[in-house]
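pinned: reference chain
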Amino acid sequence: MNPIKLKQELEKAISPELVKELFYEFEKTKSAHWLGDIDKTITHSAKFSEIAIASLKKISNPKGEIDLNDIKFKSIYNQLLNLPKSSPKEELLFLLIPNVLDSIYSIRNKKRVVHIKLNNADSIDAELVMTGCNWVFSQFVFLYYTKDINEVVSLTNSLMERKVPTLEKFEDGEIMILKKGLKFSEELLLILYQFPKRLSVKELNGILKPTKSSYITTYLKNLYKDRLIHLNSQGAIINKNGINKIENDRNKFFN
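pinned: its structure tokens
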């Protein structure tokens, strides 16, 4: 997926200002979720819902003005539900997506007025809103960027990338590790942590750019022996042990 082309296509259907905010709140939601900050996950997901519902209103009425400082969620939600829907696309845009956004938005409001203390209740809420945001974003991509199911699946996977504050990804796709002092094996594990898919040796060489390409193969074998990754002929993917190693030492990897 090319993020620049995706933004350009969405801007045609919505507006540059709304698309910018949509991406921003989506990234903030993902980052908070992967860092285990439940309150921020819920807060940013609600803001994402506000921007998304405003985007749907813009799609329904391209000439209408949107005040980003005064998005009346429930009013827009009701307007969309009352629109005539003569096609599956309109059903998706003005019924299904708004209902998912309403669920996300309502969870934030629930947190403001009542504190329900059940086992893992807050973390379950965070999982729900993150899944909802991923689904909504993917629907925008399917409708306005590509109808190729393989591209949609690939995009969905990329949307699930963990947002690591010590990694920065640039517009050309290059990834830089901002954290100094990590061993090469730790940098390798951190890169694998960010992605929810198997990465080939070639891809890892392209990201880390070691002095010798053989380093990747050598250190992957060591990580596999330590039971921190799974390794096969297609490449490597982090396992539960590797995820726990990263997340149990957040200060070392994330600060």
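why pinned: The mean pLDDT is 87. Residues 167-254 form a domain with the Arc Repressor Mutant, subunit A fold (CATH 1.10.10.10).
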